[in-house]
Amino acid sequence: MTPSAGPNPSVVRKAFDTFATETSDDYEFRRWFSERGQWENYRMMYETLRYHKGDGRFSQYLEVGPGPGTWTRLFLRSDARFTLVDISREMLSQARRNLGGRANTRYVEGDFLTVKLRDQFDFFFSSRAIEYLADKATFVRRVHELLSPGSRGIVVTKNPELLTRRVQTLRGLPAVHSGRIASRDLVALFTLGGFTNVRAYPCVVNFPPGQKSFWLSRKIWERIYRQEMRSWQSPLVESYIVTFRK
Ligand SMILES: C[S@@+](CC[C@H](N)C(=O)[O-])C[C@H]1O[C@@H](n2cnc3c(N)ncnc32)[C@H](O)[C@@H]1O
């Protein structure tokens, strides 16, 4: 396990400010809807989160790396307070635009590992951001400090064990993508960090490797997304979710 492996925060900030604005200022469309493969992934992820997100009873929601707020929408409520922390100013400005001017939403620009947050929270969410945080053990410790007893959380992250990704890694990854962590290691970190009921589930399936079939990927996903992830599934799983309680 290499919990401290990963990119430098200033490299990540610059990269996401650039991703947010290159070609158009609509990162969400480019990331999730501009090609068939992406919106197939969006649909699997949406349904996986809907299934695992629970009853949505919380009063203080904390999200790390919302980007343009794509998944924040799934959790929005008028009777709770939302704190969204992102290292990229450009991403936060797209989140503000997409989520509207809500009085119950606070946008905090900064690196989650060091930014000052005074409140305690009872729900934590983060999608596809922790792979950009260099120190995963500090990430887990901060989440633990910021959550009140009885709270819940969900983390979604890219799976480094997806077969096509393993090949990319052998060829050499850009520094910004070097912090991906396997599900068993992330489950171990949350468990060691004092959380309970820590479980990993498949979120998006890509199969067969290199020649993804939308139909087959969805069929496999339908059979596996409700159950805890098994090691033989990992080479087909593009991203997984980890759920936990404090
Ligand atoms: C790949 S995007 C994911 C956006 C969105 N959550 C999604 O799933 O589509 C990763 C986001 O995490 C943010 N991020 C990366 N490192 C961060 C850090 N150390 N603290 C806070 N946000 C961070 C990036 O700026 C970016 O908005």
Q: Which features would summarize this protein structure in a list?
A:
alpha/beta; Rossmann fold; 246 residues; 8 helices; single chain; binds S-adenosylmethionine
Structure summary, number of beta strands: 7
Name the CATH class: Alpha Beta
Q: How many structural domains does the protein architecture include?
A: 1
What's the helical proportion of residues? 25-40%
How far do the termini sit from each other?
A: 23 Å
Query: CATH H-level name... which superfamily?
Result: Vaccinia Virus protein VP39
Average pLDDT level = 92
Unreliably modeled segments: none
Strands of the widest sheet, in order across it, are 3-2-1-4-5-7-6
What fraction strand?
15-25%
Q: Give the number of helices.
A: 8
Report on the biggest sheet: 7 strands, mixed
Over all CA atoms, what is the radius of gyration? 17 Å
The coarse silhouette is globular
What is the N-to-C succession of helices and strands?
HHHEEHEEHEHHEHE
CATH architectural group: 3-Layer(aba) Sandwich
CATH topology: Rossmann fold
Question: Ligands bound here?
Answer: S-adenosylmethionine
Q: Which class best fits the helix and strand makeup?
A: alpha/beta
Would you mind describing this structure in some detail?
The chain is α/β, with parallel strands linked by helices and 246 residues long. It has one domain (9-245): Rossmann fold (3-Layer(aba) Sandwich), CATH 3.40.50. Helix content is 36%, strand content 22%. The protein has eight helices and seven strands. A seven-stranded mixed sheet has the order 3-2-1-4-5-7-6, with helices on both faces. The longest helix is centred in the first third of the chain and has 17 residues, at 36-52. The protein starts with 8 loop residues before the first helix and ends with a strand. The mean pLDDT is 92. Bound molecules: S-adenosylmethionine (SAM). The site of S-adenosylmethionine (SAM) has 23 residues, from helix 1 and strand 2.
